[in-house]
Amino acid sequence: MPLRTGAWIRWMVCVFTVGVFATAVDAGTFEVDSRRGVAVIKRKIRAAQFLSRATFGPNLEQIEALADRMAQIGTRRACEEWIDQQMAMPAAYHHPLALDMIARDGLNSTQGDAYIQRYRYHAWWHCALAGEDQLRQRVAWALIQILVTSQDGAGFNDQNPGHYSGEGRWLGPTHYYDLMVRHAFGNYRELLEDVTYHPVMGVYLSHMRNRKTDESANRFPDENYAREIMQLFTIGLYELHQDGRLKTDESGNLIPTYDNETIKEFAKVFTGLAFKPHPNANGTGRFWWGNEFEEPMEMFDFEHEPGLKTLLGGEVIGSETSVDGDADIAAALDNLLAHDNVAPFISRRLIQRLVKSNPSRGYIRRVARKFNNNGQGVKGDLAAVVKAVLLDPEAWSGQRLLGRSRPNRVEVIARGTDYSTLSEPVIRYTRLLRGVNATSNHHSGRAMLMSQNYNWTQEPYLSPTVFNFYLPDYQPPGKLLGYTPSRRIPNGFLAAPEFQIKTPVTSNRLAGRYIWDISNQMSQQRWSNSTSGVSHNSDMIFHLEEEESLCTEDGDMHQLMDHFDLVFCYGSMPQDYKDRVVEVTTAETEWMKTNSTWRPRMEEFRVNAALMATVLSPFAAVTQ
Q1: Is 65 in contact with 94 (CB distance < 8 Å)?
Q2: Alpha helix locations (H) across 55-204?
Q3: Which of 372, 481, 522, 616 is the most exposed place for a label (fewest CB within 10 A)?
């Protein structure tokens, strides 16, 4: 175990404050032996930059493999090839994985004394950290923050079995999450239909057992899902140009995409859906007797609103002579997806979740063009959209890479606010664990992490509202002094969504978690129930042997900092910061060289200090 002394604490404080005066646009430097080395480093930085968006975090081996392929066929072609290979991989689903984890531990999903719901987190973290289909998992994480549900819904933590699956109903949110995994490279229209019919969404946004109008009982269709499918899942509040700019009327006013009457008409569409009924149910009881979260909701036309419905653009659907609820829903989804807003609205949100907070008008327009037409006349092809997001020239423009000579080196200049994003806490933690090649000591070998929500107020399945963990247009309070947003950004508006959950409390807890984990070179995952005797003990062990080999000689630590810069900061760490970390760390551990008791620990202490100074720096938190 590491030192627990006042000297250790003072050392850590010194290391963490070495970069107080460094700025986000200072140049980082990678010195090399030759001009060829300049090209090699440039490719590695580009590979790291790309993989930081397309995965839950790269390690050095993955960065070097992609950089080598870039040398063979070019940067863009290598990245496109990597995307194609990822899209061809089998999907890793969370729901069956959770069931297998439960069975391997000798438990069952309806058990009431084992905090059985923790397996939804175990499954998610394993897929994020160890899943080979990294791109699919990362896109699913982006989609679940658009098509939001939360485990904080009626029955979503219920251990009672569903009528058909026989599994604890708490697995329903995991089953819903797998829609994002399944459709990550599919069609957005098909994803939206599966979302609409999924009982978890039906309960969460209350169109489950949404009934037709009965004026005598003063009952009218619930409007919740009708409102949110427009505001959050498809078209937004105001009409947009294809480049994300807000449209205005002749008086300069914003143009709403819908009004209250539109909500009422869509609410009529989403009536008549209920749980797949109990096998023994009959007659009208079929509408009321059911509890299954893993089977799509069924349409019961006797509770579906009859008649005509007037939707967006004045389109009229339905019939005055017959009732077909499924046909009404299909027509309504087609009506929504035909709206011009869908492409720029969804494109901007995917760019925000994968690349940067403030994409330019050109970036949004180029991705929206792919959303509208994948090149084969298909609208909503998410595979084409994801590729457009990750391969767009603007995705690479946050850093300028300058080759220099005498000495040969690469200087990395971060271009600043317009090009950056604050990394969300969950992603920062997966990047840490993947970057240090952490492996599980659980008997299954799987990454069995517990919920980390306490540490930073973000965790899969725990969005506090339907608006996600943070608003896409959130701005930190106060004026932005000394900086004018680029005119290339739509509407002159600079957003910083992730700052909504970055508070003094969450910042301190995140730092505390990092310091504890790195000090122990493991992420401890422990839980126990003293009453039942059920316990969970699983640690993610860090593997820093190669990094420690660079800590014996003082001069080698510059190579260590370049390594950490590449893996965790993607080349953006300023050179004076790296130099100061080396200076402080070597000076504070100099005494260990001649101390027989502590000499065997010197490399460990040095690598821990350097890693802390890296991952807790703004250069790891803010990506370019």
Answers
A1: no
A2: 60-73, 75-87, 94-104, 118-130, 134-144, 172-183, 188-197, 199-204
A3: 481
Which pair of tokens denotes residue 29? Answer: 């430097």
Provide the token pair at 405.
Answer: 């000579």
Q: Where are the domains of the chain?
A: 6-37+417-623
CB 343 within 8 A of CB 372: yes
Using one digit for the tens of pLDDT, what is the confidence trace for 384-424?
999 999 999 999 999 999 999 989 999 999 887 889 999 99
Cα dihedral across residues 444, 446, 447, 448: positive or negative:
negative
* Gap between the Cα atoms of 431 and 575, Å rounded: 22
Tell me the sheet residues that pair with 410: 30, 403
Gap between the Cα atoms of 206 and 199, Å rounded: 10
SS (H, E, C) 251-278: CCCECECCCHHHHHHHHHHCCCEECCCC
Pairing of β 409-414 and β 307-310: unpaired
pTM: 0.95
At which residue do the structure tokens 């009536």 appear? Answer: 271
Render pLDDT for 538-554 as a digit per residue (tens, 0 to 9).
Answer: 999 999 999 999 999 99
Copy the structure tokens of residue 358.
Answer: 């403030």
Compute CA 434 distance to the chain's CA centroid, rounded to the nearest angstrom: 15
Q: What is the CA radius of gyration of the chain?
A: 26
Torsional sign, CA 355, 448, 618, 576: negative
Residue 34 CA to residue 450 CA, distance in Å, equals 47
Residue type, 408: N
Task: State the CB neighbour count (10 A cutoff) for residue 36.
Answer: 10
- Reading the block at residue 133, the tokens are 């289909």
Q: CA torsion, points 122, 127, 131, 136, in degrees to nearest 10? A: 180
Task: Say if residues 587 and 14 touch (Cβ distance below 8 Å).
Answer: no
At 227, list the tokens. 């409102």
Tokens representing residue 439 in the block: 């492996």
Cα 394 to Cα 355: distance, rounded to the nearest angstrom:
9
Rounded Cα distance, 180 and 127, in Å:
13
Nearest 5°: the CA angle 61, 141, 271 is 160
Cα–Cα distance for residue pair 10/191, rounded to 1 Å:
53
DSSP character at residue 593? G
pLDDT, tens only, 170-191: 999 999 999 999 999 999 999 9
- Bridge-based pairing of strands 409-414 and 27-31 is antiparallel
CA distances (Å), 130 to each of 63, 440, 569, in order?
Answer: 16, 10, 21
Cα pseudo-dihedral 364, 369, 375, 381, rounded to 10: 70
